[in-house]
Amino acid sequence: MKILVFGKCTLPHSSQIYTGMYRLKNQQIFDLKYIPSEKAQKYISIEKEVIDQLPGVLALINSDLVFFDLLDSPKIENQVLNEVDFYLKRSYRKSGYESQKILPLGLNFEVYNNYPYWFETYRYLSLNYSPKKALKTNLSVISDSLGITFVPRIGSFECKEKNAATNNKILFMARTWDPLEPGANLTAAEQEDRYKINCERAALITRLKAEFGRNFVGGFAQTAHSNKEFSEQVIPDNNLSRKKNYLNLVKSIPICVATTGLHGSIGWKMAEYVALGRAIVSEENTILVPYGFEERKNYLEFNNNSTCIEKIVELTQDKDLKSKMMENNSQYYKDFLIPEKLIANAFIQIAAHANQLQ
Known about the structure:
The chain has helices at 15-26, 48-52, 78-83, 118-128, 135-145, 188-212, 224-229, 243-252, 268-275, 305-317, 319-337, 339-357; strands spanning 2-6, 31-35, 56-61, 64-69, 86-89, 102-104, 170-174, 216-220, 255-258, 279-283, 300-302. The chain is an alpha/beta fold and 358 residues long. It folds into three domains: 2-115 and 339-357; 118-151; 156-337, Glycogen Phosphorylase B (Rossmann fold, 3-Layer(aba) Sandwich), CATH 3.40.50.2000. The longest helix has 25 residues, at 188-212. It starts with a strand and ends with a helix. The mean pLDDT is 92.
């Protein structure tokens, strides 16, 4: 199998896709080549300017042009859909789509290869390095890109604390979204979406604190916006929100809560919980997660704060349910979510649907 990857996606969401492709290449599953967007028209008809602005990764897989759409929104980029043979959608709505080209991709999270490689380093620097930033900030970006300091890599999700399942601690950490974020140019509907998410998360944090006391760990990460608008719900120690510390925290806590993100999406924390084999209590969502990711098997679902509390209590009282769910999620990660498996299963979907369309 031969894969040509065009341009470089500017979304941090795409790290999982690039990592999966690179790891499959190293396993000699296929040949992989990166094509700069300005040279893409030798292979495809999509223009350079369009490729550079795509919200995902565009690749030619053998003779099929495939787009990995990584946006939070379930909305489809119709201009791209018309050009490609298959369209893998991260936020795939449960009601489905009319076009048979559109297939569900799966959960998304930021993850890099265990050892940096040239394209990963090049892309990381191009997204994060800027001469306008302070010298200290740019040195940190360079260190991260070279693997000197911490970025979430495959190995970050492989070591789990063996004794985590024996306690009944609950974790819910989140961020706020500023409805008036400078430069974001948000519509009134987008501002309202952010305001609603912030308020619902704040109310849930307050309720979890009241119900579970010291067994609850969490709150909002400290930012100028969260400190101003939700000072009662912010985390006292903001070091806990640093990625390395946060992932270590998840490893030590068996019951983790997930809420719906922007545009009704499933946030990155859901995939991180699965990767780390946690028991999950998740807000009801409209996004389809493929390959048998099911309620009561991989998570318990809630639609209000009272139901959330009930589901958490159920997990604290039913140790078999909690342990089995943790096992199920660890296995799901190995079978479907680790980056190379996400890509490999996407290829299997494409092959199956290509046969159906013939």
